[in-house]
Amino acid sequence: MPTIEKARLRLLTAQREQFMVRLGRRSRPGQRIDGFVVGVGRKWVLLAQTMDGGFFDGYAAVRLREISRVRPDRSFEQQFARTRPEWPPGLPSGRPLPDLDTTSSMLESFLAPGVLFSIERDKKYDAVWIGVPNELARRHLYLWEVRPDATWHDAPQGYSRRSITVVRIGDHYLEGLAAIAGPAPSAEFTHRKDSRTKVERTHWLGSSER
After folding, report:
1. Which residues have a Cβ under 8 Å from the Cβ of 108 and sit 6 or more positions away?
2. Pairing of strands 190-191, 129-136
3. Do 62 and 164 form a contact (C-beta atoms < 8 A)?
4. Computed from CA positions of residues 6, 8, 14, 20, in that sequence, does the dihedral angle turn out positive or negative?
5. How far is 43 from 99, CA to CA, in rounded Å?
6. Do residues 142 and 157 touch, judged by C-beta distance below 8 A?
7. How far apart are CA 188 and CA 184, in angstroms?
8. pLDDT (tens digit per residue) in 129-178
9. Residue 49 in contact with residue 33, Cβ under 8 Å?
10. Mean pLDDT computed over 77-81
């Protein structure tokens, strides 16, 4: 397994040379994330994600410590991706340059009010949490979650920011779910440095050197 710095250097090379990478994962060894690097920070990397066949499929921000290996793609998919209208991959439409140096700054600049996104966490079981951002507190990110049947939960739920390993926006699954679910109960996305009480908790293609 490469060190974080070695992985970061390989990702910077992939960004500079615009080749597709396949990222192995520490928390989910049987899974990988494929795509083109559009931004690298001190703690996170941003990929223009690809799906089977080389089709572009939204964006994934991946925590560097989650990466177990960085390998170049040697299949036809890289060549096919270069024929797609999205080539060359850039930043999400209408979004500012994400700040990938800290988790707080990444979440604040990458997520948008009322827009569905998903998170994965460093847990043993395979799960995805999907919703719209509700609040970014000192230690937790609160989501107003939506169920697989496209119905909304009754209240936001908070998750430790340190446990988040992957954040995705704009992929085909999220777009389909958003179309059926409709607007969230609240599109407000607030930021504050203080954390809630324990009871409440239950309830780029930019510069690569930031």
Report:
1. 99, 136, 191
2. parallel
3. no
4. positive
5. 10
6. yes
7. 10
8. 999 999 999 999 999 999 999 999 999 999 999 999 999 999 999 999 99
9. yes
10. 97
Residue ranges of the domains in the chain?
4-202
Average pLDDT, the chain: 90
| CA 88 to mean position of chain CA atoms | 19
CA atoms within 13 A on the CB side of 159: 22
Q: What is the pLDDT of residues 2-26, one digit of tens each?
A: 799 999 999 999 999 999 999 999 9
Beta-carbon contacts of residue 73 (< 8 Å; ≥ 6 apart): 19, 20, 21, 22, 34
Tokens of 126: 């395979």
Q: Is the peptide bond before 88 cis (omega within 30 degrees of 0)?
A: yes
* C-alpha–C-alpha distance, residues 84 and 82, integer Å: 6
Write a three-state SS string for the chain: CCCHHHHHHHHHHHHHHCCCEEEEECCCCCCEEEEEEEEECCCEEEEEEECCCCCEEEEEEEEHHHEEEEEECCCCHHHHHCCCCCCCCCCCCCCCCCCCCCHHHHHHHHCCCCCCEEEEECCCCCCCEEEEEEEECCCEEEEEEECCCCCECCCCEEEEHHHEEEEEECCHHHHHHHHHHCCCCCCCCEECCCCCCHHHHHCCCCCCCC
Q: How far is CA 9 from CA 4, 25, 132, 163, in A?
A: 9, 17, 32, 24
